[in-house]
Amino acid sequence: MARAAGSCSRNSNATVLSPSERFAIGFWKKAKVHIDYHISVEKSFYSIPSQLIGKTVDIKYSGHLVTVYHEGETVACHIRTLKSGQYVTDPAHMPHEHRFFREWSPERIRSRGEKIGPNTALLMDRIMQSKRHPEHGFRGCLGVIRLARTFTPERLERAARRALELNLTSYKSLKSMMNKGLDTLALFEEKAPLLSGLTHQNIRGGGYYAAEH
């Protein structure tokens, strides 16, 4: 996790930029703040104050800076990362007792997986454990759950078991596996070389939640 710092600050809802940044070419987009209180910009993720979860924000980004506005006011400002998949998080944005966030806890995410099956629930745990903060895994977990609608719950449960066997903790890896039909192979273990294009990630230990929380 990286925190924005340096040339970007907020004062009276105004963003203060250096002269070189003030005239940088910028791009605009709109996005809804996800339940993990981040928005996506070019395959990287930037935090927003958690009270804006579910709200639509305006985003201006250049090669160096990401600035987020809500109803015309600056609500977040980050130094841009060009590393795909990286989370840039300001600790001040992290929720504490926010009601909406309490509704989307690791326990609730896991319970959604349990409705599909035990392997899917365990995969939810593995995805959240692979992140510095569990909420950073919410986006991937919900993506996995949506695969039950794209395919079937039974097939997702089988694919989750295969993913656990291979220590895969990425929604994209699981989706790629199912799109290619690799989860349906009877002798899956003998077909492992076919998975060379899938992402393998390290898993945090079972005491992760206790250590972080």
General description of the model:
The protein has two domains: 85 residues, no CATH class; 108 residues, no CATH class. The chain has eight helices and nine strands. Helix 3 packs parallel to helix 5 and helix 4 packs antiparallel against helix 5. The protein is elongated, with a radius of gyration of 19 Å. The chain starts with 8 loop residues before the first strand and ends with a helix.
Fraction in beta strands: 15-25%
What is the number of E strands?
9
Strand order of the largest sheet: 3-6-7-8
Find the structural class using helix and strand composition: alpha+beta
Domain module tally: 2
Per DSSP, the total helix count is 8
| Uncertain parts | 1-7, 9-18, 187-213
Percent in helix: 25-40%
The global form is: elongated
Q: Kindly state the mean pLDDT as a whole number? A: 79
What string, H for helix and E for strand, traces the elements in order?
EEHEEEEEEEHHHHHHH
Distance between the termini: 16 Å
Largest sheet: 4 strands, antiparallel
Features:
single chain, alpha+beta, 2 domains, three-stranded mixed β-sheet, 33% helix
Quick overview of this protein structure:
This protein is an alpha+beta fold.
Structural topology:
Layout: E1 9-11, E2 14-16, H1 19-22, E3 27-32, E4 38-41, E5 44-47, E6 56-61, E7 65-70, E8 73-79, E9 87-88, H2 99-103, H3 106-114, H4 118-129, H5 138-150, H6 153-165, H7 171-179, H8 208-212
Parallel strand pairs: 5-9
Antiparallel strand pairs: 1-2, 3-6, 4-5, 6-7, 7-8
